[in-house]
Structure prediction request, 57 residues.
Amino acid sequence: MAGNQKAKGKAEQAKGKAKEVVGRAVGNESMEAEGRMEGAKGDARQAKEKAKDTFKH
Prediction:
């Protein structure tokens, strides 16, 4: 389960970064902001899973 959540976090980070870059390239500020938010969501999921791992060991 935790591995699945980590993978989901990585996917969110990658998708968010891609969306942010594309948004910046085409001058679409809302897409860029959406990408940053999605990336932050992935970062938060990753941090949560790392914290869980720390307390398990």
Q: What stands out?
A: The chain has a mean pLDDT of 91. The helical segments are 2-26, 29-56. The CA atoms of residues 25 and 57 lie 43 Å apart. The chain has two helices and no strands.
